[in-house]
UniProtKB/TrEMBL annotation:
It is found in: Mitochondrion inner membrane. The chain crosses the membrane at residues 56-77. One of its GO terms (biological process) is mitochondrial respiratory chain complex I assembly. Pfam families: NDUF_B12. Keywords: Electron transport, Membrane, Mitochondrion, Mitochondrion inner membrane, Respiratory chain, Transmembrane, Transmembrane helix, Transport. Belongs to the complex I NDUFB3 subunit family. Accessory subunit of the mitochondrial membrane respiratory chain NADH dehydrogenase (Complex I), that is believed not to be involved in catalysis. Complex I functions in the transfer of electrons from NADH to the respiratory chain. The immediate electron acceptor for the enzyme is believed to be ubiquinone. InterPro entries: NDUFB3. This is NADH-ubiquinone oxidoreductase B12 subunit. Its main location: mitochondrion.
Amino acid sequence: MKYSIVRRGPKPNLTGFNPRALAAAAGSPVNDPWARNEAWRYTGPFSRASRLRNNFPGLGIATVAFIVYCGYEHFFLKNDHESRNLEGHA
């Protein structure tokens, strides 16, 4: 029994439909039919900056309050830790 290499050609197209030819003929769409429905995601309260700002609504006020408290504590409250007698420590 002798084995031989059989070279196969491309498979015949039984339906006659060529998806590559369809894609080339269609080209890119002139306008996106879903553009109007998707526009709300990127404008108004749903824009990227607005979403970031609204995720942390009290962050600005809390930051200012924390800085004011740290300044008050630093300048007006007495620090007893430095005034203790530390003779026994090196």
